[in-house]
Amino acid sequence: MCGVAGFLENNADRREEHLSQIAHAMGNAMLHRGPDSGDVWVEGCSGIALSHRRLAIVDLSSAGAQPMTSACGRYVIIYNGEVYNHNEIRPELAARGINFRGHSDTEVILEGCALWGVKATVQKLIGMFVLALWDRHERRLTVVRDRLGIKPVYWAQTSKNFLFGSELKALRVHPDCPEEINRDAVAGFLRHNYIGGAASIYKEINKLEPGWMISVRANEKPILEQYWSLDEVVDQAKNNPFSGSDEQAIEALHELLLDATGRRMMADVPLGAFLSGGIDSSTVVALMQAQSERPVRTFSIGFHEEGYNEAKHAAEVAKHLRTDHTELYVSPQEARDVIPKLPFYFDEPFSDSSQIPTYLVSKMTREHVTVALSGDGGDELFSGYTRYFTAEKYGKAIFGQPQILRRLEAGLIQGISPRSWDLLAKVIPSSRRPTLFGDKLHKLAKILDGGKDAFYRGLVSHWSDPDSIVIDGVEPKGIMWNDEVQRRIPNFIDRMQYLDTLTYLPDDILTKVDRASMAVSLEARVPLLDHRVVDFAWKLPQHMKIRNGQGKWLLRQVLYKYVPQELIERPKMGFGVPIDSWLRGPLREWAEDLLSVKSLNEGGIFRHEPIRKKWQEHLSGRRNWQYLIWDILMFQAWQQENTVSPAVKLGQFG
């Protein structure tokens, strides 16, 4: 795992020393992504500079160092990620006369691009990656992002330069980096708690979206091309659905996951896994242990607060699987101490509060291993989110009613406060009682008035009218508002999974895991997001995902081969921290400073009146607005952290 950055100047008249100085600074801004070594490659006559920071995982020798030049001398690569089938591609290249200098996956990718071309090569790869390839003959730079968006990359085209990097902070070191805040993106952030799609927090900086590549030559417009599409996966699944029995499906998924997990256990450094005790991480760990001759290292963190502690469940699974388990119980103060670090590591506003425990478990894990496998992706692929089986269970009952009746029901729900609903819910056994019951009911009441797609948008929204909060901001209406999606994917649960895979998965879940793990120089691998698993999951009928009102049916059957059902069966628990009570208690002073009328007005982004209203309601205990308030706080904290450009902090380059 590494960090990549670079730039291509339109006016190629700079001295190589100047290019090298800027490139080194761009790489050093991401030292946490690659603390083992770093170097640059520049070519003054072309105006190209490539910078790489290395976290050595495979081939720890100098033969795996980057930037790396192809055997023919034509191509230069920098690369972030891991490709798990490089040992199968290597013989193909050797048969064509390639003499390898080392055993890194980087060299396989590079020589593949030299022989087959970039697009044909990346379509062969199983793994996660961002690569940048410079063609010295055509003087063309090509940047590629993996299919699911596991690894990040940003880019910008200015009148003088094309810039790119794994993190925004690398681009911002460059003196030509655009820095105007994208107010429309801020509005989108308030709805979703992340900045989605191709946008970034800066108006002229973009994300390269999953499954896309971009190529550029000096003084020419960049060319974007999609090499992998979830739409194609969905279409192929429609034309060739899985038609076997339950037993055949279980065995097919079992074999596929064994292979996907086994591939991700290859490393020349110590390796382990995150273990929460839930379906996804327990499945990954079980499959790892089944293929390991010694106990797998597993890691979890716990909290003393009721409703937020998964460590006890993880310990039970670890004991059954006989892993070498490490757990750490985190005090509230230790968790709160992470908060000031978040704006730096996340680079742009990001307010999924599970970023805090994700960082903490990564930090603890890095003290023992360099690579950790994670269970992310199971919810999106196998219908694990509560909204999926809620939609199946209640969808017909809700949306089969006349709209006037739904409005009446909404009024009845809203007539009782969330706190009172929580008290009433105590009659439900704790093992079956949803967390934040009252707030979820009130959220449901807000969306009863619309159709199914409005229902989905409501479930994944924080601020429902962000345009009214952001001064001069207009929320981008992306794929969630695209009526064509409903026509192409008529099944509502399929449609939610499709939208989550294109939005929430890369822009929230994978962003969180990447930034939190790389902040401590830990490589996180996600076997459930092997693209072959994605292909298979989309071929499955929904009754193999949701059954008897419970999600992830097929994945559970694989897990039950290794772990007794009673160790797993419990309500889904979010990986979070008690932000709601912290904001009323130990974080109140910090929050009040950022949410004061003075701070909000000085920032120049938000209208303070609706924010102050929500804040006062939260403090009073009448409502729990923790997620909406956290959105504002994370933006305000980010804005304070980023008032001074890194280029200024590190010194201008002339």
Automatic annotation (TrEMBL):
Organism: Kiloniella spongiae
Pfam families: Asn_synthase, GATase_7
Protein name, as recorded: asparagine synthase (glutamine-hydrolyzing)
Record field: catalytic activity: L-aspartate + L-glutamine + ATP + H2O = L-asparagine + L-glutamate + AMP + diphosphate + H(+)
Record-listed E.C. numbers: 6.3.5.4
Pathway assignment: Amino-acid biosynthesis; L-asparagine biosynthesis; L-asparagine from L-aspartate (L-Gln route): step 1/1
Alphabetical GO biological process terms: asparagine biosynthetic process
Keyword list, A-Z: Amino-acid biosynthesis, Asparagine biosynthesis, ATP-binding, Glutamine amidotransferase, Nucleotide-binding
Domain Glutamine amidotransferase type-2: 2-219
CDD domains: Asn_synthase_B_C, AsnB
Lineage per the UniProt record: Bacteria, Pseudomonadati, Pseudomonadota, Alphaproteobacteria, Rhodospirillales
Homology family: Belongs to the asparagine synthetase family.
